[in-house]
Design brief:
By secondary structure, the protein is an alpha+beta fold. The protein has 7 helices and 12 strands. It has one domain. 40% of the residues are buried.
């Protein structure tokens, strides 16, 4: 009887803790932009064994969440739909072969650049009054920088399942991708991104991610 009472108290504490720690997965929609929360994981982004420095923002349920610079509290499909609701138009121009053929010199698919409405990505960081552009957080060894586009790629979600919201390359898995670098560029080491010192808060810190269509 005493064991059952202790077990019941433990279960009640666990349920209460879950309720206290639960974070609502919501996206704020304002005229011309959306915003959601995320957690910083710069170390995982830099040191992932298979795909380092590739995924800027990955959503809940995404299989590449462990390698993301920012782990979002919302799913990639929800972000896609939210961007469409504020007027962004997806390019939907990247087939899965853009990744699958990445080592095939005869295929042109890995050389495709993501299309779609230009997107400005900003971060709300603790202790800073104004949002910080994602580009300021990153150093780019290739020097081309970021030209983020709303790729969309909704049709690729069931196969890719990466959960990628913002990719630093023109990847068929990203909802927003970087038109300055293709998948072929990534394979050929044309550029590698790294996190600048002194801008992002420590790993585990909470930040806001703002995505703003610019035309």
């Amino acid at each position: 009887m005493r064991f059952r009472a202790v077990a019941a108290l433990f279960l009640l504490h666990a349920v209460s803790s879950c309720k206290t720690d639960a974070r609502p997965a919501t996206i704020q929609r304002r005229p011309g932009e959306i915003e959601f929360t995320a957690t910083v994981h710069a170390s995982a982004f830099a040191h992932d064994f298979f795909m380092p420095a590739y995924h800027a923002v990955v959503g809940t349920g995404g299989r590449m969440r462990h390698a993301a610079l920012l782990q979002a509290d919302v799913a990639d499909r929800d972000v896609l739909e939210a961007l469409e609701s504020v007027g962004a138009k997806p390019g939907d121009n990247l087939p899965m072969s853009a990744w699958d053929d990445r080592r095939d010199p005869r295929s042109r698919a890995p050389d495709l650049a993501v299309a779609g409405t230009p997107i400005e990505a900003l971060l709300r960081l603790p202790g800073r009054q104004d949002p910080v552009p994602l580009a300021r957080v990153l150093e780019d060894s290739g020097g081309r920088g970021l030209d983020l586009r709303f790729g969309g790629n909704a049709a690729n979600i069931p196969r890719w399942r990466s959960g990628c919201i913002v990719c630093l390359y023109s990847c068929p898995g990203g909802k927003v991708g970087n038109a300055r670098y293709t998948v072929r560029d990534y394979v050929n080491d044309a550029a590698r991104f790294r996190v600048r010192d002194g801008i992002l808060p420590p790993d585990g810190s909470r930040v806001g991610v703002v995505l703003r269509p610019t035309r």
